[in-house]
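Entry 14. Ran structure prediction on the chain below.
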Amino acid sequence: MNDNGSERIRGLLAPLTLWIATVVIWLPWLGNVPLRDWDEGIVASVARATSQQSGLRWLLALKHAGEPYLNKPPGLHWLIGTSIQTWGEGEWAVRVIPALVSTLAVPLLVLLRREFSRDQHGEQSALTAGLVLMTLLPMARHGRLAMLDGSLVSCSLMLWLGWLRSRRHLRSAALAGLGGSGVLLLKPPALLGFAAIILVMEVLERLSQPPLNQTHPSRQHSLKNVERMGWLLLGISPGLAWHLWHGWWRGLDALVMWGGQGLSRLTTVVEGNQGGWLVPITEVLEGGW
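Output, structure tokens:
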């Protein structure tokens, strides 16, 4: 094995070790308490009803009474439904898949932090970030429940990791696309915010770079951008394909998860939750540090 291969294995050892430790800490006793919070009950019932459908209808989220479920895409519900069909309807079977997906956030955060600095200080900061996330109570609690929050964190980190790495390795943009597909199949309006941030980052980076010279001709630079976007579209195509198919199948009702249950949460009261647009701001100020 060459030096690059050995270095790559050593680089994966730390995040892999933290991931195993997270699994050991998070997975035990998942079935010790009944499903809590109204979110878990809804997610479990939708997952069970959706998994009982046959043919292409399995791709459509349904409520327990067979009514269309329009609040969220069924990305996580498919996985939970498969778990229920395999291991039964116990609390452990309902929670194990969201918990496993959530644990991936820890190694992904370590790898993401490394992208900002690759020296010894950066490695220490990356490991510290992973340990903090592994033991952070909101993440450990919500990540172990049958809720979308922990899985959304994992998909978001995958998106950012792939996008930052694609600056050096164009094919890593496919990883960013897969993270985007995950977001589209969990909470699609969130992808609009991520896209806006990426756009701002790219504009600021362009403004900070010196003009292209003969060593880096503009034609070559443009071709690299086209290839990067191609890999991104390849990764995000599953999420986009589902939303296009969902729109074709359900028509205007498919927009509920974008408007009525998505962006409107920032401006109006949804399902009796008070606060409107102040809630996201106060949550960032409270826990964003």
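The mean pLDDT is 86. Will compare against last week's run tomorrow.
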